[in-house]
């Protein structure tokens, strides 16, 4: 591009205590351009965006917007200047309605701040329509919506600002392909109208679809940029090549992973087999016929899911797929005792099991990784170490006293195994990048030695290298005889890991398959209600 | 599919899915019951209260008694209205009672010194604004948790009042006639109309203005409020100042009601104000509630007080009953929060 950039950043540096989140970073974006910001967890992507959005102020360096100096001191300044942001961590108002959420901070008013409800209602209807969301959502309380719907409302809110610069920090990490595609269409429209879009993602399969240029950060520094969505090049710039290699079909394979059949990240593997991806079917025959550890029979929860039956076997990975709102997470919550069950039974290890809360579930050996990291997962006031060991303290305690050394070892072991990037185990969890927080939660569960591991979007927001690592860990865990129930919106992940897949559609189980019967087309058909 | 013991097709072979909206179901789930209780508890309690007391005392349901109750509730109602804003933002104020006490000393002294009523009234407002500004700055600017900050200022006001009082009770007449129950418009005391007007205005501010939305937003999620471009500190301070101004007015009506300033004047109002807001159903955690509910809470508490006296119950029981009712109301709110959280994932 020859024209002058809309937004420029020069020499941005940002320190948090002893952590250098960004060092001397430059960044440009033109009007109408779509730029993907890439990098491993903790590379500084979100920090860069937050400097642009006025959440943080830089320690050094400067910004310009539309040719003028731009130094937002607060998010308000940035919003006024035309910078609109969808943050990585969801930031809605759960007590307020969707309509109120959509207009928070930018209400249409008459004199004295009096709200113009009529025109806001009209405008809100149009906004939702652009994301193909039903207008009936407007009156619902934000907190009553699923996380993915909340995310879409936040996207609609950011879009509504008619921003000059739109920042999307991992917006699709909890959306399935269907919802993601709607977002991409919206991004297309906006960039055609001149909005500059900064897009952060760890999903390689959407890169070409959403971005014209790729800017890579590594350890808080510029690591290069390119117009070429070539995976190998990008991975090299990100510094992920050591842990990931590129397979013959263009897909990514963990370096340690000798299994050539591992399904490629993204669409790489699709072409070779006529548009059909198949499951890996790693489980051996013994695991497939062993007595199930969890049997769910005709389970119903009023208004959420109905008449669900399936079994989870030790040593197997059972995948659950469904579009947003299909009831996948809700089913997991019910198994953990966090959602009332109205009918049906659950048997765990051959015995009837009636969960009352996650605590009883955990005592029985059912560990659950929740979908919403921020509100259901982390203890925001505690350290990385305390967060990690929280569920496994019993293992390192005697007569109720926690062994300091035992806890330290436990934390160190797991931080090392999942390569968690934190200054020290004593750093506050909130100082970690999103992906690293997710790893801490995973470690917390894995450390409890569960019989059944329920993982709701386990690699949400995790970079490719670590994702491979986590996939490998999950497979290893299954190989030791642990049953895994895996919920994922990412088709490639589901296909790669699952031995069995169940698909939910509007609260019903519509389809199940094992091993080689698992195909992408069949799953999608079932998820959209097309299969019987 | 041979290795599956369950029947995968089960879901699809049964009749088409029922509508999956949680509110659409006709069944009375626990969630709906709690929700209904949460909404209707206060109205129901009010009805029970009125019926019970009118059976217990023939004097209870007379216009004279009811206007008396309304007039006597004025200071509590004004404080509770302002306090609702603070609690909606997730804050609390435990200094309101002694702030009223201290300001009522100022009002009484100025009256005794023969100052014109308008000057006295403006002084009360100014004093209230200072109180609000102080509390607001401590919590919003210095980021001291509001419970700690207002415990501190409460001690300050209490000691201040004690020092000013200096073992001399000050007797006083109302600043303006309409601040006592005496002045009437037809049958209705003007004071009651003023209180109702305050509630109406605050209700409109909360529901119809950006400022009101910001208050709910802050109570719901402070971080998100900041990121949405809301000036959290300013809204917090303004909320505190509004409470302070209402405390200033309340000091005048309090003095008109009791007619004397003593060492511990006003102290009882702190707890009653918090109780009114909470019994009304505004969440102590912020983000949810309304001033109209608070008005209901105020009515409930003052009528309870009045009815117990009229029914000849020893006044010792009064505190016990009020305390019990508050616990019940708060636990029902808490239960609703838990159940809401469990059901919230439904679409
Ligand atoms: N508020 C904070 N306090 C202290 N350290 C922080 C804070 N925010 C970020 N950091 C640190 O700055 C570095 C960059 O974090 P950032 O969130 O920008 O990473 P990211 O590239 O967005 O990663 P991810 O892909 O995991 O979201 C990390 O090492 C992180 O621990
Ligand atoms: Mg990030």
TrEMBL record, chain A:
Domain annotation ABC transporter: ranges: 7-244, 288-531
Top-level division of the source organism's lineage: Bacteria
GO molecular function: ATP binding; ATP hydrolysis activity
Pfam families noted in UniProt: ABC_tran
Swiss-Prot/TrEMBL keywords: ATP-binding, Cell membrane, Membrane, Nucleotide-binding, Repeat, Sugar transport, Translocase, Transport
InterPro entries cross-referenced by the UniProt entry: AAA+_ATPase, ABC_carbohydrate_import_ATPase, ABC_transporter-like_ATP-bd, ABC_transporter-like_CS, P-loop_NTPase
Alphabetized PANTHER family for the sequence: CARBOHYDRATE TRANSPORT ATP-BINDING PROTEIN MG119-RELATED, D-ALLOSE IMPORT ATP-BINDING PROTEIN ALSA-RELATED
Protein name: Monosaccharide ABC transporter ATP-binding protein, CUT2 family
Native species: Okibacterium fritillariae
From TrEMBL, chain B:
Subcellular location, principal: membrane
Membrane topology, from the record: Multi-pass membrane protein
UniProt-annotated stretches for the region Disordered: 1-21
GO MF annotations, alphabetized: transmembrane transporter activity
Annotated localization: Cell membrane
Transmembrane segments: 40-61, 73-106, 118-135, 142-165, 185-206, 237-257, 269-287, 294-313, 319-341
Pfam families referenced in this protein's UniProt entry, alphabetically: BPD_transp_2
Top-level taxon in the UniProt lineage: Bacteria
GO cellular component terms listed in the entry, alphabetical order: plasma membrane
Signal peptide: none
Keyword GTP-binding: no
Keywords attached to this entry: Cell membrane, Membrane, Transmembrane, Transmembrane helix
PANTHER family listed in its UniProt record: ABC TRANSPORTER PERMEASE PROTEIN YPHD-RELATED-RELATED, RIBOSE IMPORT PERMEASE PROTEIN RBSC
Protein name stated in the entry: Monosaccharide ABC transporter membrane protein, CUT2 family
